[in-house]
Amino acid sequence: MIRNFMKSTALGLMLAGSTALSAGALDLNAMTDAERADFGEAVREYLLENPQVIMDAVAILQEREAQQEAAQDIDLVAANLDALHNDGFSWQGGNPDGDITVVEFLDYRCGYCKRAHPEVASLMDNDTNIRLIVKEYPILGEESVLASRFAIAVKQLHGDEAYKLTQDALMAMRGNVNEASLTRIAGEFGHDMAAIAAQMDSEDVTQVIRDTRLLGQRMQISGTPSFVIGTHVLRGFLPLDGMQQIVAAQRDEG
């Protein structure tokens, strides 16, 4: 794509670089061998004298691609809005009537998700007009799935407050996710691990993970953390100030 863009840019430079070529010779296929040689030399000389042109052309291309991706993401959000905001099973926090909704896709074994966790908490603490929705999106192996099953089972058995405490504990974990570590977390909050384990294997928990994975695929989310902030899709970690800038831009767009 960059090569084609540079080719069209070079065509635009040709008349400035060579007075020997006629306007009709702008069609490369219609050029004689001599005209093509003249054209190539003119463009080469121009770019050697003005190398910034190459960087400017690449920057323009990248900006066009970013605009196209942003437009595609707006369409993706619109097409999946109900599943993003109202699936009936994802944990929701913050202001339920907030003017901006932040949807986070996370994996408890993801280092960047762990880095993002306090940043998201600060975002919510500093802005009381945001609704936060958490999507369990375990994509980094069996331990990820085990952790998500545990968190979802806690929510289904003990409610939203218990889920939030469990999520915080899982994000703070630095060891392996296994029966022993999950039993320890359950014990810290006074939960019966046997009941949680039974729920973890239930179809209700499996359906939550299945539906969220399908949503992530439709949203073209292949990594964590990923966020949908208003109509903006952020695929990857961004510090607090960056997220705040996106929230402000979404508000400005109305």
Offer a concise description of the structure.
The chain is of the alpha+beta class and 254 residues long. Helices cover 63% and strands 10% of the residues. It has helices at residues 2-17, 33-49, 52-79, 81-85, 111-126, 142-158, 160-172, 179-188, 193-200, 203-218, 240-253, and strands spanning 91-94, 100-106, 130-136, 226-229, 232-235.
Explained architecture:
The protein is an alpha+beta fold. It contains 11 helices and 5 strands. A 5-stranded mixed beta sheet has the order 1-3-2-4-5, with helices on both faces. Strand 2 (100-106), helix 5 (111-126) and strand 3 form a beta-alpha-beta unit. It is elongated, with a radius of gyration of 26 Å. Mean pLDDT is 88; it is low at 2-7 and 13-25.
Largest sheet: 5 strands, mixed
Number of discrete helical segments: 11
Overall mean confidence score, pLDDT: 88
Strand order of the largest sheet: 1-3-2-4-5
**In angstroms, what separates the terminal alpha carbons?**
34 Å
- Which secondary-structure class do the elements indicate? alpha+beta
Low-confidence segments: 2-7, 13-25
Total beta strand runs:
5
The helix fraction, in percent, is 55-70%
Percent strand equals 5-15%
Order of helices and strands: HHHHEEHEHHHHHEEH
Shape: elongated
Radius of gyration: 26 Å
Question: What structural keywords apply?
Answer:
disordered N terminus; five-stranded mixed beta sheet; 10% strand; 5 strands; 254 residues
Q: Could you outline the blueprint of secondary structure elements for this entry?
A:
Elements: H1 2-17, H2 33-49, H3 52-79, H4 81-85, E1 91-94, E2 100-106, H5 111-126, E3 130-136, H6 142-158, H7 160-172, H8 179-188, H9 193-200, H10 203-218, E4 226-229, E5 232-235, H11 240-253
Parallel strand pairs: 2-3
Antiparallel strand pairs: 1-3, 2-4, 4-5
